[in-house]
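Could someone model cobalamin with this protein?
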Amino acid sequence: MTEPSSHEIENRKLDRGTYEHERDTVLQTWHTGKDVDFAKGVRRHHEMPDSKKFSVALANAEAAHKTLLQPRAGVALIREQIQLLNDLSPHCDVLPTTVDAYTRHNRYEEAQAGIDRSRAAGTSLLNGFPPVNHGVEGCERLVDNVSKPIQVRHGTPDARLMAEITLASGFSSFEGGGISYNIPYSKNVPLARSIRHWQYCDRLVGRYEEEGVSINREPFGPLTGTLVPPFVSHAVALIEGLLALEQGVKCITLGYGQAGNLSQDVAAIRSLRQLGHHYFREFGHDDYALSTVFHQWMGGFPEIEARAYSVIALGAAAAKFGGATKIIVKTPHEASGVPTMEANRAGLQATEQMINMIGDQGYLETDEIAQEMALIEREVHAVMDKVIDLGQGDIARGAVRAFEAGVMDIPFAPASVNAGRLTPVRDNNGAIRVFDQGSIPLPADVIAFHKEKIAERAAAEGRDASFKMVVDDVRAISASKLIGRPN
Amino acid sequence: MTEPSSHEIENRKLDRGTYEHERDTVLQTWHTGKDVDFAKGVRRHHEMPDSKKFSVALANAEAAHKTLLQPRAGVALIREQIQLLNDLSPHCDVLPTTVDAYTRHNRYEEAQAGIDRSRAAGTSLLNGFPPVNHGVEGCERLVDNVSKPIQVRHGTPDARLMAEITLASGFSSFEGGGISYNIPYSKNVPLARSIRHWQYCDRLVGRYEEEGVSINREPFGPLTGTLVPPFVSHAVALIEGLLALEQGVKCITLGYGQAGNLSQDVAAIRSLRQLGHHYFREFGHDDYALSTVFHQWMGGFPEIEARAYSVIALGAAAAKFGGATKIIVKTPHEASGVPTMEANRAGLQATEQMINMIGDQGYLETDEIAQEMALIEREVHAVMDKVIDLGQGDIARGAVRAFEAGVMDIPFAPASVNAGRLTPVRDNNGAIRVFDQGSIPLPADVIAFHKEKIAERAAAEGRDASFKMVVDDVRAISASKLIGRPN
Amino acid sequence: MADARFKVVLGVIGADCHAVGNKIIKSVLEPLGIDVVNLGVMVSQDEFIDAAVETGAQAILVSSIYGHGEIDCAGFRGRCVERGLADILLYVGGNLVIGKREFSAVEAMFKDMGFDRVFKPTVDLEEVAELLKADISRKVLVCNDDHEVVELRIAG
Amino acid sequence: MADARFKVVLGVIGADCHAVGNKIIKSVLEPLGIDVVNLGVMVSQDEFIDAAVETGAQAILVSSIYGHGEIDCAGFRGRCVERGLADILLYVGGNLVIGKREFSAVEAMFKDMGFDRVFKPTVDLEEVAELLKADISRKVLVCNDDHEVVELRIAG
Ligand code: B12
Ligand code: B12
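Reply:
Sure, complex below.
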């Protein structure tokens, strides 16, 4: 594959020849690639019981209005990873395998050093599981030794080899996307490139679908996890959903990370589902299964565990009131480090208690939620219209150009292709508003609304809105507040 | 004092002579009574800084719409109690002293044995602090060695000596009431007697008020803490409030224990404030300061600490959305035993995190909350009308007769004077409804509404409503649910 | 009225007013065929024993929820012996001591006091009913057979 | 441009993409008079050193948030020595190791690696600025006075 430019990238299904040709190269990028056998992978999936299939778990949850719980978990070695997942399994509905950060950047040699040092140290020195290094055989061992559906969760701009290995091994869900696994996760990867690499991953999933194997795909909703206005992450989720469906993906889960204000969060997760159906149908898709995932607070956590529990509980309540199909669960260790099994289990138990208590209650309906939903929808349409426009109807090309133009812009993202001009800040009720729109094409009245809400807060705090206020907001939850008010 | 009957008890201010005469006897019921010096007590209070006065803390919180946090805490020995309160003090706004259960039943000899055994064991073997045994000198030492307002929290049908001792020592708030500290806390104490004894306590507080010392009084809201419909506890709180004001109390805090359904809880705490003003004014009082207190879940807790945190968090959210002036905080040890300082602190920290996050958000306004408020108000008026009627205008006499007639009736209460015919059960949204009204005079349409809501649940669960359902509800939260549904 | 073969006295000891668990225990045991003489809350050792003597119950189920169990239950077996009920089954359950402690230590302490079985608050009451029936049946067997010398106190 | 007396290189080491803390550190230090050369995320040891050489910075502030700090920071001081920056101040902070560990152990490990100061995520950045200025000023004093022999690495 040569480097695609914004002119060449397009939202079109990769043809079989292109895909197969590229595949030959991909499988050679690390020695474990040679063991990938697609036909064998298909057989594995066909032989797998329904209880281990992500698509089935999601469909059942959707039908029964249940909310599935999923932890994060990844350690360096296979045996330890099996142990960890089996210890967590009774407390959750679907399993993860969180990938280490070297693998996310295709630094397999460093991952190998991490594996070796972990073995020597007798404890994981990697922040995740390195599936490429463990190869098909290792991943199969993992999948075979757990009893629930298992997903790959990472943050990899070029996840082609990882997808080939893990899906052939029996993982039945794959997180990520060309935007959401680039902008928040890398520094210098051209967007057209990562989108193109994710078309490959989606095409691979499409190939499985063609063989009657349903693999769930989940664009990464929370992005940088820090003051991301819902419309920003929704636009990314919708584009990645469309890109995935185009490649033949059929089972898709759109994600969102808790903003902290209950009304905004409930509105966001409800609108995400509606907008998903809206755009998917508008782009001619009708054969897909849609579900949603809510990520508990993805920003900096309070260090004190008791405080962390309340952040977790508020997220659980918002997710359940909002009707999310799945929750990605945080732990009381979040501020400190990769959680122990015990801390992870505690996060799951706290979350389960809350969703059970909320799930037994009525539908939460307020004017504020309705207004937030209407607002988010208008904002998303404004951005999406412009993206489609920039791409002259092509959403892939449009996305690349939108980032170039700052029409899409993710707060606090490290990627150099991200404009970084959009500046969010909380309003006086803690909802995330747009302080500086950068080049995001929001309608004038919407911008006026944001400004008014921010002015309300500024007045209440007796200070002007400024970047100082934004910094205060970033640190607020860790300091046990939602809004970073002056003392 | 001779035993009052329902004919003799009346809601009238005890005259000075009656009070003084009774006092002489009261102070002789245990040897520490002789050290009580009212004039010296008044001086102590006058010399106390505002930062140690309950009435000031409550007034400030009311004015600033802040929510104060208060733990429960009581151990057998003075030095340990001082240590415990000072360790908790940085994490809360006002302090408690929870009294041991022997003292609550005036069994000072057993309390003394508990003190002695605790001293020998090097750890508290009492479930609270025994203020009567420690006497004025001991209580003064406690008050002098803490830096925040401090309240006596107990459960004592006859708390006259305890009140004399603790208030003279500088405690500035006293929990309880003639109904709320009898029906849930004792077995064979005639109601007229406990009401009469609490008129004494209130009169004592009134005497302090006459000397310019404001002492806060707080009827105990949650009663048995188990499936108590809001109108039941509201009626008790209102009656005890009226009885207190009659004796000269000026600073009053009405309480309510979390029911579990968010809408019902928010409605309950909001309506409690409104109803308080309504009845207090109706009975001719206008010189009082009213505040509210919300008790986090008072029923059986989940044993697993992570789950307990979510129960605590939901309570904190309801309290803050409802606008309570104070929260009585539970701990992750609740299901197991009297909490350690660390567990207590954790409960406070979790609660603070949640109320800060919720406090930064908008006012929660839903149709459901409005409907619940209207319902609670109608129910309370129905009961109160009948109580006033039974008492021929006298609320004390009315209360005694209302309990005799089952017009007031507290679920799961141990007192033999309680009818125990009112049977509550949750509806399909987890709100507490009336399954069997016993002799509670609720309007026909209100009863029809309750029946309809319960039928809705019964249909959803495919079983008839029955006492089995009630038992399931009692055990639900400990089993990580709000509603006790069949599996 | 439940099966008269199994009759127990139930109550909450001491100055303890926790009434909910008490009502729940009665409501679960009775439909399972155990006749429950319920003394409610705030029951003294002698009140328990009086009731057992009067009704001929084969077991006493003591609850202690409020933390003074360690004090209130001391000497219970001795008092039973004094009052001629040396062999009566004694069960105890609830939040037996002050604070969160290892259950095994609590269990050992109450077994030392002469209780036959000791239960946590989270115990499954259906299982308790089974144990109760088995323990009572075994005692009856033993008492009907004078010749055998058997350890009456249950080991586990 | 901040006071040129205090110039530092800032970045997040290794394959670490956590960008938020990095932006916050810059936004706090600069108004306090520290000139921050910010390399952003995913910075290698050599990139840090290149920037320090180029800009003449007196200190390098290394962040590691994602847990691979123990691996990524190994040999940093040695590399500085090789590249002629033996005496440059090295600060490191963040979630330096995998999992929740006692900070004192983490601190000792990174001091052993040759870092002058080691910080928790919750550190007060205003205090860091003070320390930085004090440490840099002390170094300058030492370097201007050839006669004195002083321990350059900070003790506490
Ligand atoms: C937001 C976040 C993300 C976002 C980051 C978005 C972005 N590009 O910035 C996303 C979702 C992308 C992400 C990804 C990952 N994350 Co992350 N993430 C967080 C989270 C929740 C908040 C981080 C944050 O922004 N905090 C707010 C800022 C202001 O604080 P800060 O980063 O701590 O920085 C401050 C201080 O540390 C200090 N400081 C930092 N450096 C230095 C240096 C000096 C000299 C000084 C004086 C001070 C100092 O000052 C800073 C400003 O106040 C933390 C957990 C937490 N803290 O609650 C986890 C966390 C850092 N992530 C973690 C991990 C493991 C990952 C992943 C590997 C995925 C995974 N396994 O869960 C990937 C890594 C990808 C990669 N290649 O790096 C772990 C690290 C574990 C460990 N060390 O043991 C954490 C701790 C979560 C956890 N408990 O497991 N993450
Ligand atoms: C509701 C409640 C109250 C209500 C009681 C209302 C009433 N009259 O019933 C009120 C508010 C009045 C109250 C008062 C007090 N309480 Co209280 N209360 C509770 C609470 C929250 C729930 C109890 C309950 O109803 N549970 C539901 C029922 C179904 O469960 P249960 O009582 O545990 O009973 C079951 C099992 O234990 C078991 N079981 C019990 N006995 C037996 C016996 C046998 C043989 C068997 C097999 C099984 C068995 O089966 C029962 C049915 O399932 C508990 C904490 C908790 N559990 O979450 C604290 C708790 C019991 N209370 C406690 C205390 C200390 C008090 C007070 C002293 C006040 C204080 N310091 O906080 C006073 C005591 C007053 C007195 N004189 O007794 C402590 C006891 C501490 C300890 N043991 O270390 C607890 C544990 C709270 C705590 N962690 O501090 N309380």
